């Protein structure tokens, strides 16, 4: 258990951040899943419509240090190539 006031505050703030980061990461994963299901079903119109939302969500997560910037770049690249490879 934390003894100092500073340590107690760090515990409180880190718990709040953990909950927010978990929520944001869950949102990111949900958006990517929506895109991938649209790609797998062959609905190019829907996939093209979802792609900007996915890129925005990835950029936001990267900006908030939830994922690393290189990880964000790789995820965006995979999403874009998945949509472009559709016929």
What is the correct CATH architecture?
Up-down Bundle
Tell me the helix content: over 70%
The CATH superfamily appears as Ribosomal protein S20
Q: What name does CATH use for the topology?
A: Methane Monooxygenase Hydroxylase, Chain G, domain 1
Shape: elongated
Uncertain stretches of 5 or more adjacent residues: none
E-strand count: 0
Order of helices and strands: HHH
Whole-number tally of structural domains: 1
- Measured between the Cα atoms of the first and last residue, the distance is 58 Å
Q: Largest sheet, described in full?
A: none
Q: Can you count the helices?
A: 3
Whole-number average pLDDT? 95
Q: Helix/strand/pairing class, anyone? A: mainly alpha
Tell me the fraction of residues in β-strands, as a range: under 5%
The CATH class turns out to be Mainly Alpha
Radius of gyration: 17 Å
Can you offer a commentary on this structure?
The structure is a single chain. With 87 residues, the protein is mainly α. The chain has helices spanning 5-41, 44-63, 69-84. The longest helix has 37 residues, at 5-41. It starts with a helix and ends with a helix.
Question: Could you outline the blueprint of secondary structure elements for this entry?
Answer:
Elements: H1 5-41, H2 44-63, H3 69-84
Helix pairs in contact: 1-2, 2-3
